[in-house]
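step=encode ok
step=design start
structure_in=
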């Protein structure tokens, strides 16, 4: 069945998070932004995807609209792997990461949604599942820098039923305060977003050792320095996680060959979509490395992650950004009740974006 149309929509939804204004990438976030991708086929069926992301949404949207979408029109929507491989080859000199791969991710997710809808089954059944219908989530906090705020929000997450809490702090004091507030039974992770050289990371790992971290995430700059990451893993007392910045399964293969990580963290909206994501799962399983996907999303990207995890033989945590949205694009499926998320059981992703929410909060 041929692709007839590809459209994008940028939706911005206000949120609360329990702390003062904060954000990432040099910008304070007042909304949580979702870039939706809709693929229509000639028979009138629609599939929904999500492309990364956040501060670069406008760039990703323009890349899809002007560069990727025209190449999709008239192509076979059922030949997902062949189409995505052809698009990656055709567009490779525009970047093997960033807006091109982000855009392809959105197309791929939408095509898989179409595949499930056409078959009349949830995506997890196309992947051989379900192994489970519920997935344990961890609370992924924003960066506060203030030990008192970090402690307050961490304790609140535990009270809401989360057994795992991830911080985005780069100093010891907020991490130590969160550890004390969350209690010894709570698993604490720290995502530092690639700030340190190897020597700096080794020093900070020693300082953080007393906080009993479940993992230390992306501590090395640049993130593609897998040799440095491997040396930190060899010399540190805590598991190492990384991968949200990887743009392909090939980079994960290199990471795994270097023995750089304990947790692989592919992001379905950043790596090329569900197909590439599942390649990473196979690589990690062969290397006996655990997977903990990067998924701080509230649209089809999060739903796609849930379906892949539902079918996987290995039980994995799903990341749930710890914010309360003013409205939900995907109803209760993006909620974590007592730290547990439910996998949709409708055809495809199991939930189309709410059109009323889209109309109210659409920005472009």
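sequence_out=
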């Amino acid at each position: 069945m041929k692709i007839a149309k590809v459209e994008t929509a940028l939706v911005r939804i206000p949120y609360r998070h329990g702390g003062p204004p904060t954000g990432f990438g040099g910008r304070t976030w007042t909304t949580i932004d979702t870039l939706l991708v809709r693929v229509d086929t000639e028979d009138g069926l629609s599939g929904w995807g999500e492309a990364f992301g956040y501060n670069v949404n406008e760039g990703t949207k323009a890349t899809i609209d002007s560069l990727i979408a025209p190449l999709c029109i008239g192509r076979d929507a059922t030949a997902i792997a062949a189409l995505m491989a052809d698009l990656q080859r055709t567009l490779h000199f525009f970047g093997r990461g960033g807006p091109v791969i982000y855009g392809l991710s959105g197309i791929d997710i939408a095509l898989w949604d179409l595949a499930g809808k056409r078959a009349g089954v949830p995506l997890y059944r196309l992947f051989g599942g379900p192994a489970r219908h519920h997935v344990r989530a961890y609370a992924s906090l924003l960066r506060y820098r203030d030990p008192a705020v970090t402690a307050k929000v961490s304790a609140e997450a535990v009270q809401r039923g989360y057994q795992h809490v991830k911080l985005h702090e780069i100093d010891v004091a907020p991490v130590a305060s969160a550890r004390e507030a969350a209690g010894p039974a709570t698993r604490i992770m720290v995502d530092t977003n690639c700030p340190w050289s190897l020597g700096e990371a080794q020093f900070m790992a020693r300082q953080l050792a007393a906080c009993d971290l479940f993992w230390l995430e992306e501590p090395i700059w640049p993130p593609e320095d897998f040799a440095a990451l491997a040396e930190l893993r060899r010399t540190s007392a805590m598991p190492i996680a990384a991968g949200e910045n990887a743009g392909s399964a090939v980079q994960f293969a290199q990471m795994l060959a270097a023995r750089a990580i304990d947790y692989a963290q592919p992001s379905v909206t950043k790596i090329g979509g569900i197909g590439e994501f599942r390649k990473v799962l196979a690589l990690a399983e062969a290397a006996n490395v655990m997977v903990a996907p990067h998924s701080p999303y509230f649209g089809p990207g999060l739903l796609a992650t849930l379906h892949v995890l539902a079918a996987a033989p290995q039980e994995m945590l799903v990341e749930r950004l710890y914010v309360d949205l003013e409205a939900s694009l995907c109803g209760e499926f993006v909620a974590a009740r007592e730290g547990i998320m439910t996998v949709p059981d409708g055809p495809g992703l199991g939930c189309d974006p709410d059109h009323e929410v889209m109309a109210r909060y659409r920005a472009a």
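step=design ok
step=annotate ok -> The chain is about 40% helix and 20% strand.
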